[in-house]
TrEMBL record:
Species: Ruegeria pomeroyi
Record's catalysed reaction(s): NAD(+) + ATP = ADP + NADP(+) + H(+)
Classification lineage: Bacteria, Pseudomonadati, Pseudomonadota, Alphaproteobacteria, Rhodobacterales
Residue numbers annotated as active site: 43
Protein name, as recorded: NAD kinase
Gene Ontology annotations of biological process type: NAD+ metabolic process; NADP+ biosynthetic process
C-alpha cells in the first residue's frame, strides 16, 4: 500500500524534526500531486494549511506538533498509511467576510473558525446588527462580537461563552464579547444561510477592527459575513476522534 503524501510543517523545531522523519520514512510529494496532505503543527498551522491548499481539493490530515491541536490527530511516525486509509473525512465550509473601512476601501477574506469584531480603542464598541437585511439589534455596546462556524465554535466563540455547535448543524453562532448593553444579551443561533451585517456606530470615536482567521482589517465602517458553501475543506480524523466526537467531549470537560 502506498500513497502520495505531501508533508507540510510549521516553523517550530519540533514540527520540522517530525517532517524530516516522516519524509525519510514515506517520501514526499508536491501538494499539487498529492493524494493527501499531512500538516504538522498546531491548530493555527492547520488553518493556514487549509486556506493555502483549498484550491487543490485534497484532504488534509493533521498531526499535533503544536500546543492545542483540536483539529489535529495524535502524532506518531509509524502506521501512517494504515491511519490514513482508516481516517474519517469531515467537510466544512468557511465564512466569507466583506468589510469596508472608513476610507471606503473594500476588504475580503475567508475564515474557517470565526469572523470577529473587536474594539480598537479605550472605549467600548457600538454595533448595529442586521440579519438578511433586517435590523435585529439597534445597539450592542461591547468589547466586540463574532460569528462562528460549528468547526470554530470551540475556539474564540467558546471562550466568549458562546455555544458549542454540532459539526453537522446548519447553524452559525453570533456571540457578543463582554456585552455591556444589552447586558444580558446571550447572542443568537442563525441558519447557515444567514447574511450577518455589523455597522459600526461612532466609528471615529470608537474604532473597531475585524479579524478573519488572523486576517485583520482596521478602522472598520461595516462588515458582512456569510457562509461560503462553494468552498469545501476536507479534514481527516482518526476513527472515533472526529470533530463530532470532539465537540461533544469538549462540553463535558
Amino acid at each position: 500500500m502506498s500513497k502520495r503524501i505531501a508533508f507540510l510543517a510549521s516553523d517550530a523545531p519540533v514540527a520540522q524534526t517530525a517532517r524530516a522523519a516522516l519524509v525519510g520514512r514515506y517520501g514526499n510529494a508536491a501538494p499539487r500531486d498529492a493524494e493527501v496532505i499531512v500538516a504538522l503543527g498546531g491548530d493555527g498551522y492547520m488553518l493556514r494549511t487549509l486556506h493555502s491548499t483549498q484550491h487543490l481539493d485534497v484532504p488534509v490530515y493533521g498531526m499535533n506538533r503544536g500546543t492545542i491541536g483540536f483539529l489535529m490527530n495524535e502524532y506518531a511516525e509509524t502506521s501512517l498509511l494504515e491511519r490514513l486509509a482508516a481516517a474519517e473525512e469531515e467537510i466544512i465550509n468557511p465564512l466569507s467576510m466583506t468589510a469596508m473601512d472608513q476610507a471606503g476601501q473594500i476588504h475580503r477574506a475567508l475564515a474557517i473558525n470565526e469572523v470577529s469584531l473587536l474594539r480598537a480603542g479605550p472605549q467600548a464598541a457600538r454595533l448595529k446588527i442586521s440579519i438578511d437585511g433586517r435590523l435585529r439589534l439597534a445597539e450592542l455596546v461591547c468589547d466586540g462580537a463574532l460569528v462562528a462556524t460549528p468547526a470554530g465554535s470551540t475556539a474564540y466563540n467558546y471562550s466568549a461563552h458562546g455555544p458549542i455547535l454540532p459539526i453537522g448543524s446548519d447553524v452559525l453562532a453570533l456571540t457578543a464579547i463582554a456585552a455591556f448593553r444589552p447586558r444580558r444579551w446571550r447572542g443568537a443561533l442563525l441558519p447557515k444561510t444567514a447574511k450577518v451585517r455589523f455597522d459600526v456606530v461612532d466609528a471615529d470615536k470608537r474604532p473597531v477592527m475585524a479579524d478573519a482567521d488572523s486576517t485583520s482589517i482596521t478602522d472598520i465602517d461595516w462588515v458582512e459575513i456569510q457562509s461560503e458553501p462553494t468552498i469545501r475543506h476536507r479534514i481527516l480524523f482518526d476513527p472515533g476522534h472526529g470533530l463530532e466526537e470532539r465537540l461533544i467531549s469538549e462540553q463535558f470537560t
